[in-house]
From TrEMBL:
Protein name: CAAX prenyl protease 2/Lysostaphin resistance protein A-like domain-containing protein
Organism, scientific name: Halodesulfovibrio spirochaetisodalis
GO MF term (any one): endopeptidase activity
Superkingdom classification of source: Bacteria
Classification via Pfam families: Rce1-like
Record-annotated membrane-spanning stretches: 7-23, 29-60, 72-91, 111-133, 145-162, 174-194, 201-221, 227-244, 251-271
Keywords of this entry: Membrane, Transmembrane, Transmembrane helix
GO BP terms: CAAX-box protein maturation
The CAAX prenyl protease 2/Lysostaphin resistance protein A-like domain, residue ranges: 173-263
């Protein structure tokens, strides 16, 4: 299949993410469906996987109309659906390998990157049914937001001190596809799931800080493929992203913190880690 045709899948999916982020639900869902149809034509998704994806969207769309007990069950099913997509457990979805064993710089370890079809669908579905996803927009507290930004900066310094990364100021030729992919298909999906959905949902049940800590731990565990050190770093980063969401009452602020942290890592340091001789 022609790669240019395949890229239409993520063009349509990116449009859907942008539209849904600006609360244009009908247009956003139209482009989600367009993306899935294009993916099916390009053999990037099977009919069974597409039906499972559409089932998740149907459950999400029905949730606001359901009675309390049925709605709770529907949320449980939707959460399992989100986890399956996040962990790439849904058979029949083939993500596109866009960068294979490239180096961000001479001191950087090899890096591969996929355009994910499954993970962004999480945000699209949650945008349909979860009213709290984008935050209330009622508060914007500068001091804790600055504290969270400072904490993320210190994390890069700690990683440097531990030898995981080293300073390497440069941008690889593929920085733009990294930025688009990271922003639209990674940061928005992850912040929607862990901050807008899990943290905000738990906050109403167990309170802010337990909810923030649990969401951050779950976020850290989702990085298990990188080993215990990455789990620890992702957990701490999750705390700062959670603070960004809580003290701004805006999902886009948490997304911006997440994206800028990742892009700063790429621009100022070896990415994803340093080559060790």
């Amino acid at each position: 299949m022609n790669t240019h045709i395949e890229l239409l899948i993520w063009f349509f999916l990116g449009l859907s993410v942008i539209l849904l982020f600006f609360h244009r639900k009908k247009e956003g869902i139209f482009f989600v469906i367009t993306s899935l149809v294009t993916a099916f034509i390009a053999d990037r998704i099977t009919i069974s996987a597409a039906l499972l994806v559409l089932l998740g969207f149907a459950i999400a769309a029905s949730i606001p109309k359901l009675q309390f007990h049925i709605r709770t069950l529907a949320y449980a099913v939707l959460t399992a659906w989100c986890v399956a997509l996040y962990e790439h457990w849904v058979p029949g979805i083939s993500n596109l390998l866009i960068l294979k064993s490239v180096h961000a710089g001479p001191q950087s370890a090899p890096f591969s990157m996929y355009l994910n079809l499954d993970k962004p669908l999480i945000f699209c579905a949650l945008a349909v049914c979860w009213a709290k996803l984008f935050g209330s927009g009622k508060t914007f507290r500068i001091r804790p937001l600055l504290a969270a930004a400072t904490g993320l900066f210190c994390m890069l310094m700690v990683a440097w001190a531990l030898g995981s990364i080293r300073p390497e100021i440069m941008l690889p030729s593929w920085w733009w596809i990294f930025a688009l992919n990271n922003l639209l298909f990674t940061c928005i999906a992850e912040e929607a799931l862990y901050r807008g959905y899990i943290q905000e949902g738990l906050k109403g049940i167990i309170g802010l800080w337990p909810a923030l800590i649990i969401a951050s731990i779950l976020f850290g565990i989702s990085h298990y493929h990188g080993g215990i050190l990455l789990i620890a770093f992702a957990t701490v980063a999750g705390l700062f992203y959670g603070m960004a969401f809580q003290y701004s009452s805006r999902l886009w602020v948490a997304v911006l913190y997440h994206f800028l942290f990742n892009f700063s890592h790429l621009f100022f340091f070896t990415y994803p880690s340093a080559i060790h001789s």
